[in-house]
Amino acid sequence: MPLTRTTFGRVTLLLMAVGFAALLAVGVGLVWLVESSRGFSQAVTATQNVRLASVRVLSLMQDAETGQRGYLLTGDRSYLAPYEAAVAALPEALPDLARQVIADGGLAGPVEALARNAQRKLDELAHTIALAETGNREAALAAVRSGLGQASMQDVRAELAALETRSAGRLAARTAAVERSGRALLAGAALALALMFAVTFGAGLISHRYLRALERAEAATRVANEGLEARVAERTASLAAANAEIQRFAYIVSHDLRAPLVNVMGFTAELETSLGELRGLVERLQQEAPALLTPAIQAAVTEEVPEAIRFIRSSTERMDRLINAILRLSREGRRALKPERVELAALLDALLATMQHQLEEAGATVERQPSLPALVTDRLALEQILGNLIDNAVKYLDPARPGRITITAERRGTRIEIEVADNGRGIDPRDHARVFELFRRSGRQDQKGEGIGLAHVRALARRLGGEVSLQSTPGQGSRFRVILPAILAPEPAASEENYA
To answer: Do 268 and 363 belong together in one domain?
Structure first.
């Protein structure tokens, strides 16, 4: 189906809407996960506080019982010191336990029952101590042997164990909820990032398709209307406007997607900070109450959430590189060409001087034709074309043999043919066309890059009124030929637009 301007506009709006929706969903999800992590941290702390308060109450009750028994056995009042300290501390410890249980989401009723049982035990202890102090030690020992005090102590232990069990159950329920939410968010984030990547890739692909369609229309117009200067000028102006629309679209999509992408990176950093705090709490829990730490909690904190963060970060970094590439293409397309006389030999010497370190590291040598023609063209565009071709030749040399790059140029009528040849890996014939397409690469991907360079070279060559072609054999090397007009025709005047 032809890609009309109306269709192009609708697809543009749809891609932008999908991209913004996906970024917004990721941002909201990250904020929600941070808050959930904080809530879970508070729940872990509350459960730990309940356990610590419970252990304190039980320890005080045991100290009181130990002091009573020591006094009854020896008659030495110094043995009553633990009892007296426990009796003094329990009025503070029991309300503190009640506060911790309520803070953990529990009820005050079980703590009140615990307080009644504790008071019965204390009354029994006080009664036996009083009998011993009046000299009736046998009656005191008989009261101990009756088992009433032991039963009260067992009730206290049972109540404390029940409080800890209920608190652990609440923590387990919260843990399960956090795990479910984390898995759901991970799946949602993966889907959202996939959508954002698809939007970025689709924007570039649609722009590329639209640009190719316009280029074909321009060529057809030139052939069909050769000699009709007025109609050619009119069609050229129309194509220039359409090309500006493409550049505006690429700029808007990449520029507007950058702001929410920065937010995603920021939320990811905040999530990493929260994860560090959560990991500290889990380590404390492992030391102080390992029974409360389930394998699922440990896996979520040490493996699943860090893995999700690494996935989000790598995806956002790749998207950032793609957006930067689209922005570079957009800016170059909007730049006005400035024809000037360019000595090809001097330009190449300066370019090779800046790449000398890269050439030495690769163990490559560059041979250029001693005498090179001059041409009138845009210096920056020509420098970018040759720089990309030489850089590619260096990157894809064959390490099995010394690298050799040859640069030649020749004038043929009104055109200049520049050739950059190397003895590198070569390119499979099936990929000769696709290497010039946006975001497409060939062969094994062991070099950095996003598939932008050769697409940029062809776009610049065409804008200068020329073309670029490729001849290559795998294992032998590649030969890129750039054909440019010897004198660049001035561009038609176009209004400057601010896309920022």
So the answer is: no
